[in-house]
Amino acid sequence: MSRRAKALLMGIIAVIVVAILIAAYFASQPEVKWWTPEKEIGKEEVKEINNQSIKVVRVNKGKDYVELLNITGGNFSSNTYFKVGTVLYLQYYTFIKGGYDTVTGNFTAWAERVSGDYILQKLVIHYTYGNEREDEYTAIWCLDDSVFEAANLSFNMANNHDPHEGDLWWDWRTNHRMVGVNKDAKNADFYGVSFSIEILLEDLLSMNLTHTITFTVTAYYGHPTLLGWTDMHELKTQVVLKIVPGGEKE
User: Fold this and answer.
1) What is the per-residue pLDDT for 100?
2) Which of 241, 197, 196, 195 is nearest to 58 (CA)?
3) Does the pLDDT value for residue 24 go beyond 50?
4) Domain count of the chain?
């Protein structure tokens, strides 16, 4: 075989190897099935709340009861280019004697461009507990997707981890996280998501356990290009909920 033929063969082999590697890379990527909520949240629906820490007191009245809370907490941060905020509204506390207590309400996260040409890439909600014991006795559920509202954000509902559960729900339950993505790199001034939540308290009041839940919202923004996002920055804010035992009241 001539030197030219060998070089040609080596070139063909190199192209085949590169093609195989590229195919293997894309095959290894998780499936994406975008879901965009039908209901849209408007900028006029959100408020800049400056009440970073709120508290709910659990009381055993010796019987089942529902208490109207009507408590709102939240916070926001801003810089030259963006503003990011969160609102946690608590509506009801339900006490079930011999069962699990619940706190229900609504959670909203939003980001607003205030100047410049940066575009939001994604908005990430992450919640953490004060310690492992709290994690063991607490669960936070999102209600079904019919109560979701969003603006310029989409969510992955593929079944990469559980064939019976979309990634949106799996990520919230397992990683305590929700990621809203600007999948089309839409050049907008406002992005947000709002949904109902139910906080399940699986401990007894006699255990004297305080539940501290910190919700963090992070806006990631930059410039989209054909090769991906560049010049990335982030801006975050937090709201803290404390649910404390208040003993018994006859």
Assistant:
1) 86
2) 241
3) no
4) 1
Q: Is residue 24 assigned to a domain?
A: no
In 3D, which of 41, 11, 27 has the Cα closest to residue 109?
A: 41
Using alpha carbons only, what angle is made at residue 73 by residues 218 and 187, rounded to the nearest 5 degrees? 35
The pLDDT, as a whole number, for residue 28 is 45
In a domain, 121, yes or no: yes
| Dist. CA 95–CA 63, nearest whole Å | 8
Residue 181 belongs to a domain: yes
pTM: 0.85
Alpha carbon distance 142, 172 (integer Å)? 8
- Answer yes or no: is 4 within a domain: no
On whether the CB atoms of residues 215 and 75 are closer than 8 A, the answer is: no
pLDDT digits (tens, 9 = 90+) for 154-166: 999 888 887 877 8
Domain limits at 57?
Answer: 48-248
